[in-house]
Amino acid sequence: MTKLQAKNIVKTFDHNGNSVLVLDSINLNVEEGDFVCIVGPSGCGKSTFLNIIAGLEQPDSGEILLNGKPISTAGPDRTMVFQEGALFPWLKVIDNVEFGLKIAGIPKDERRLISQRYLDMMQLTKFADSYVYQLSTGMKQRIAIARALAMDPEILLMDEPFAALDSQTRDLLLVELQLIWERTKKTIIFVTHNISESVVLGNRVAVFKNRPSQIKKEITIDYRRPRLSEDENLQKYYHQIVQELKSEVKAQIKDEFQ
Amino acid sequence: MIQNIISKKNSFANLDDAANVVLSLAVFIGVWQLVFMLGIWPKIALPSPLIVAESFAKIILNHTLLQGVGVTLGRLLVGFAISFTLGMLIGFTMIRFKGFGKTLNSFSAGLLSFPSIAWVPFSILLIGFNDLGILFVVIMSSIFSIMISTYGSIRNIPPIYLDAARNMGAKGLSLFSHVTIPAAAPSLIVGIRQAWSFAWHAIIGAEILMSIVGLGHILSVGREFLDMGQVIASMITIFTIGLLADRLLLFKLEEKVRRKWGLDYHR
């Protein structure tokens, strides 16, 4: 069953009075329970695309269908894990995880059960009463994932969530995320500029072109899980994506130096 | 455990602070006594610490001081409460309507630096030589600071907090109370502290010029009767109340917020 459908998404930005076409008709279908990664050169609009799916930004034309119904505003059925975590520093870890549940008016006892479950899953139960500044970057991202999962969303959106992590922590979380995905059966769209990350995580990798962006190619990665980033057998997918991206990155760099 | 270590550290720091305060006070009074004994100024212009202590005892025993403090604090609290509520509401409106906010923001910046005493003649003629007139001066002296800091603190909230909250379903009132206010709190409190001190300046000034009771009035009576002891005694009272209000209430609040946010670790 198709979970999410992006139809002809077009988005322009106003840059110093000039209108810049960022997304030039993006079409993407995501099946229920699928794990789709989006890679592309920096500034190609992949985060913008994710924001449009989340409803945080509006497209100029085109529409997003969730379970066949068009969406227009932000909503807890599409929760996002942001690059910097975006945890609230005025709340304890447990209250951060429960934030969306509280907004939804779920009673406290029930909230506690849910937040405990996801804190357990992330192995952060003993930090429930800590404040955000007391956590490492890796812990913050795990809390952000717990916060997003606690909403039991239709689809989980991840915007370069591991970009700020050291490589050991990232490798651990790459495995952890695969296990969580298998356990929760969530549909995930994961944006990254890191090719090996996309190969390890994705059932499918959508390669974005340089601005104005379109989906250049979709690559299916049919390989057993959990995958490790050092797995030699993933190399061929890695090189395939590198080939696709090479000309795009060149174009992007040329754009920036013009 | 971390909380424990922090509070232990704080109690040592408090002990240290107390010792420092006592020492500084002793030095201050010592120098004062010394200058007094040198006889540079006549006794009537610069009394000794002991004479001031006697004046203190006098105005405490005949209840003028307590009554004065009561009246002044009463006026101050009413005036500040009004200016806090009104200032916040206007600040929120400024956020809601961008053009209005921009205009009023520059306008308030001008009035922010306007001396509180300069409102007195206007207030006497507009409202009268009474309590309401004094309240008016207090409000006009502190409300712009509240407005500007409400407006500025909300505008400076990192957009990612609002995005994250909207993403989890917060909007309207829930977004405002669960995210906007707490996210703005650290800088909002700084503005409230400033407004409080402006209100405090204003009430004493207004009472000197337009009241027949209150701390400012005690100060002005001291001048009229050439009673420097009373003048200094009321000045010390004003200083102490101002300090206590800031340290015990506003500063505590600010520290609490800063600790939560982990802003206590600036080196």
Major beta sheet of chain B, specifics? none
Which structural class do the helices and strands of chain B define? mainly alpha
Helical segment count of chain A? 7
Largest beta-sheet characterization of chain A: 6 strands, mixed
Strand order of the largest sheet of chain A: 6-7-8-3-9-10
CATH topology descriptor of the largest domain in chain A? Rossmann fold
Helix content of chain B: over 70%
Low-confidence stretches of chain A: none
- List the secondary-structure elements of chain B in sequence, H or E: HHHHHHHHHH
Low-confidence stretches of chain B: none
Q: Ends of chain B: how far apart?
A: 22 Å
Number of domains of chain A: 3
| Greatest contact between two chains | A-B, 29 and 23 residues
Topology of this protein?
The complex is a heterodimer of chains A (258) and B (267).
Chain A: E1 2-15, E2 18-31, E3 35-39, H1 46-54, E4 61-66, E5 69-70, E6 78-81, H2 93-103, H3 108-121, H4 137-150, E7 155-159, H5 167-184, E8 187-191, H6 195-201, E9 204-208, E10 215-220, H7 235-257
Parallel strand pairs in A: 3-8, 3-9, 6-7, 7-8
Antiparallel strand pairs in A: 1-2, 1-4, 4-5, 9-10
Helix pairs in contact in A: 2-3, 2-4, 3-4
Chain B: H1 2-38, H2 49-61, H3 64-96, H4 98-112, H5 119-126, H6 131-155, H7 159-167, H8 172-210, H9 215-224, H10 228-261
